[in-house]
């Protein structure tokens, strides 16, 4: 069953007056047509600036496309920028509620997950302290614990697994795997080839805002290697 | 698996926004997100008042101290001996600060929350409205600083006092709406934020903070200049609050009230349409 479709999606980034004056081409993506089925895990790869994160944000309802339609069945959540929106003067618990609210979750949904968030973050003794007393690793733990606590029908993940120390990174990766098992559909952007090859049913390769290829992970990584080689030769 | 019935449950995520829906659309999207607005207000209040020893008392102490300083300067040095002058100044400070904070806060709302707007689909206006309500709440609390003046000058509390929070609300709406007009453009032209901040400082002297409406009408009579002066949307509400709180007769002409309400309404209509139609696009890739 289709849970997400993108029809002729196009988006051009607004330009500053300085960029216009310099005659710089505006960054854009599209036209993009994609369909995602229920319970599939799809990866998006490509070079930096190829439009992966922008595409994910269009799917997540964060950026509105200039043209085209995004159709969705069920709830969708974007896991990105972990910890953005934290306030240093609020306690860990208050930030948990604030951050989850900013992600679009209601109080009753947050209350249901708060014990799990405290347990997963391993910060129980620090939850009543302002997060200005936290180390950056502790903030990352809190961020990823909140961000991964909820289970939408479609989960979008943008490079969030590299936070915290080595043991917490492993724990986060396990958590994402659990989410993948528990969620309907997962669309993930990551530079970790091993992880993507292991979990993805198919992979989308993007370059310069356009889709280059979609298919089996092994085939797409071969195409990606060739693309990188050709680019470096240029 | 890809049958036509399968796709029936799919819903379109983004529909083109229509300008005509903006004035009510802005209200309804904020009502839907009232829980988050409440949290953002708590966040802003806690960040400002949780650290200091005197906490929330600063909301009262600040306008009180400002009024005492202004009264000292203008009362003792310039020679105004009116015992109500500190209260007159304090009401002016509360009213003007509310308008200026709503205006400047809303003007930079898209810029200051830019990183957040790359990750959340929360309507952008939520942050402008939470800024407005935070400042409105603080202004209402600041009014408590007037109690000693009311008591010392034997002013009887009237039922019309209920109009004071309404006037403050209209002031905050007016400042926020003007900010909504400027905010989307300020994303691409950051100088606008500085210009608005400068105008807010200049506006302090052009508004009835240290002077009064009767001084203005006394100087310029009832001619065209006075009518023109009413284009400053803070003149009527600040004067009216003074008249109500200090139990004085209002000498604002009816056209003054009409101009204030009209300007606020125009600001809201233009601001809501401009923000509703442009804000979501302006923050892309900031």
Q: Compute the CA-based radius of gyration of chain B.
A: 22 Å
Q: How many discrete domains of chain B?
A: 1
Mean pLDDT rating of chain B: 88
Report the β-strand fraction of chain B as a percent range. Answer: under 5%
The structural class of chain B is: mainly alpha
Care to give the gist of this entry?
The complex is a heterodimer of chains A (234) and B (286). Chain A is of the alpha/beta class and 234 residues long. Chain A is built from eight helices and nine strands.
Please outline the helices and strands.
The complex is a heterodimer of chains A (234) and B (286).
Chain A: E1 2-12, H1 17-21, E2 28-37, E3 41-46, H2 52-59, E4 67-72, E5 76-79, H3 92-102, H4 107-121, H5 136-147, E6 154-158, H6 166-182, E7 185-189, H7 193-199, E8 202-207, E9 210-215, H8 217-233
Parallel strand pairs in A: 3-7, 3-8, 5-6, 6-7
Antiparallel strand pairs in A: 1-2, 1-4, 8-9
Helix pairs in contact in A: 3-4, 3-5, 4-5
Chain B: E1 11-12, H1 22-32, H2 34-49, H3 58-77, H4 85-107, H5 109-112, H6 125-142, H7 147-152, H8 163-188, H9 191-206, H10 213-220, H11 224-229, H12 235-245, H13 254-282
Helix pairs in contact in B: 1-13, 2-6, 3-4, 3-6, 4-6, 4-8, 4-9, 4-12, 6-8, 8-12, 8-13
Give your account of this protein's structure.
The complex is a heterodimer of chains A (234) and B (286). By secondary structure, chain A is α/β, with parallel strands linked by helices. Chain A has two domains: 1-75 and 154-234, P-loop containing nucleotide triphosphate hydrolases (Rossmann fold, 3-Layer(aba) Sandwich); 81-151, Helicase, Ruva Protein, domain 3 (Orthogonal Bundle), CATH 1.10.8. Chain A contains eight helices and nine strands. In chain A, the strands form two sheets. In chain A, strands 5-6-7-3-8-9 form a six-stranded mixed beta sheet, with helices on both faces. In chain A, strands 2-1-4 form a three-stranded antiparallel beta sheet, covered by helices on one side. Chain A is globular, with a radius of gyration of 19 Å. Chain B is an all-alpha fold. Chain B has one domain (23-42, 53-282). Helix content of chain B is 68%, strand content 1%. In chain B, 42% of the residues are buried. The interface between A and B is large, with 43 and 35 residues. Strand 4 of chain A pairs antiparallel with strand 1 of chain B.
């Amino acid at each position: 069953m289709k849970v997400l479709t993108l029809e002729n999606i196009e988006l051009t980034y607004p330009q500053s007056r300085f960029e216009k004056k310099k005659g710089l081409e505006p960054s854009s993506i599209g036209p993009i047509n994609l369909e995602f089925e229920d319970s599939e895990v799809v990866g998006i790869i490509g070079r930096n600036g190829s439009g992966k994160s922008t595409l994910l944000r269009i799917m997540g309802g964060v950026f509105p496309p200039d043209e085209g339609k995004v159709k969705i069945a069920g709830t969708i959540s974007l896991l990105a920028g972990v910890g953005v929106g934290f306030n240093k003067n609020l306690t860990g618990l208050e930030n948990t509620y604030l951050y989850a609210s900013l992600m679009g979750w209601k109080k009753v949904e947050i209350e249901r997950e708060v014990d799990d968030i405290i347990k997963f973050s391993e910060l129980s003794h620090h939850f009543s302290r302002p997060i200005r007393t936290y180390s950056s690793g502790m903030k990352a733990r809190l961020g990823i614990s909140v961000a991964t606590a909820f289970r939408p029908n479609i989960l979008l993940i943008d490079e969030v697994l590299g936070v915290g120390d080595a043991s917490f990174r492993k724990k986060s990766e396990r958590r994402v795997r659990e989410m993948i098992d528990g969620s309907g559909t997962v669309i993930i952007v990551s530079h970790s080839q091993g992880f993507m090859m292991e979990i993805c049913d198919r992979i989308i390769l993007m370059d310069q805002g356009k889709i280059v290829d979609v298919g089996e992970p092994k085939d797409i990584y071969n195409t990606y290697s060739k693309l990188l080689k050709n680019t470096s030769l240029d | 698996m890809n049958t036509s019935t399968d796709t029936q449950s799919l819903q379109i995520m983004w529909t083109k926004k229509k300008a005509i829906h903006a004035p009510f659309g802005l209200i309804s999207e904020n009502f839907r997100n009232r829980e988050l607005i409440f949290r953002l207000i708590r966040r802003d209040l806690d960040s400002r008042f949780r650290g200091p020893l005197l906490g929330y008392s600063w909301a009262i102490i600040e306008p009180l101290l400002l009024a005492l300083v202004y009264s000292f300067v203008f009362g003792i040095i310039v020679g105004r001996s009116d015992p109500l002058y500190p209260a007159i100044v304090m009401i002016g400070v509360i009213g003007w600060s509310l308008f200026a904070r709503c205006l400047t806060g809303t003007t930079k709302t898209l810029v200051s929350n830019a990183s957040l707007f790359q990750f959340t689909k929360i309507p952008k206006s939520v942050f402008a409205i939470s800024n407005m309500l935070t400042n409105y709440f603080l202004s209402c609390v600041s009014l408590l600083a007037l109690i000693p003046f009311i008591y010392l000058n034997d002013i009887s509390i009237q039922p019309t006092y209920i109009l004071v929070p309404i006037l403050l609300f209209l002031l905050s709406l007016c400042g926020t709406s003007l900010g909504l007009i400027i905010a989307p453009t300020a994303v691409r032209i950051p100088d606008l934020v500085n210009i608005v901040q400068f105008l807010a400082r200049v506006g302090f002297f052009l508004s009835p903070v240290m002077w009064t409406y009767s001084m203005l009408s006394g100087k310029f009579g009832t001619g065209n200049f006075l009518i023109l002066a009413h284009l400053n949307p803070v003149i009527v509400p600040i004067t009216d609050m003074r008249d109500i709180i200090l139990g004085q007769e209002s000498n604002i002409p009816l056209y003054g009230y009409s101009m204030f309400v009209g300007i606020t309404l125009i600001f809201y209509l233009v601001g809501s349409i401009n923000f509703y139609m442009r804000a979501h696009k302006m923050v892309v890739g900031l």
